[in-house]
């Protein structure tokens, strides 16, 4: 080689050596890796929170349906509405039409 100091740097000229070594600077990738790791952690946290909220909403929906059916029964017992006007009857009609 022309310069003895340049044989330690990556070069296409291998000279007497059997292989060429290319050193890649990886310190530039550490901040990117750190930011992507933080974003991945946030995505996992948001997903878990969303799953928890979905389960909570499903439970509340079932309880609301129970209370509406109970109210329908009480209103039918008092003669305020007829059985065809109840929420359950309307829900059943919507289910048959689909």
Description:
The chain is built from two helices and no strands. The chain is mainly alpha-helical and 98 residues long. The protein has one domain (4-97). The radius of gyration is 35 Å and the shape is rod-shaped.
List keywords for this structure.
single chain
In brief:
With 98 residues, the protein is an all-alpha fold. The chain contains two helices and no strands.
Overall pLDDT level: 83
Shape: rod-shaped
The number of distinct helices, counting runs of at least 4 residues, comes to 2
Order of helices and strands: HH
> How large is the share of residues in beta strands?
under 5%
Radius of gyration: 35 Å
**First-to-last CA distance:** 82 Å
Helical percentage: 55-70%
Strand elements, count: 0
List the domain count as a whole number.
1
Provide the structure class.
mainly alpha
Q: Which residues sit in consecutive blocks of at least 5 with pLDDT less than 50?
A: none
Main beta sheet, described? none
């Amino acid at each position: 080689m022309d310069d003895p100091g340049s044989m330690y740097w990556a070069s296409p000229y291998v000279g007497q050596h059997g292989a060429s070594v290319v050193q890649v600077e990886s310190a530039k990738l550490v901040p990117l890796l750190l930011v992507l790791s933080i974003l991945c952690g946030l995505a996992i946290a948001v997903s878990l929170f969303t799953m928890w909220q979905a389960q909570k909403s499903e439970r509340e929906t079932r309880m609301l349906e129970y209370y509406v059916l109970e109210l329908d029964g009480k209103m039918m017992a008092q003669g305020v509405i007829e059985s065809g006007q109840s929420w359950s009857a309307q829900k059943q009609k919507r289910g048959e039409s689909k």
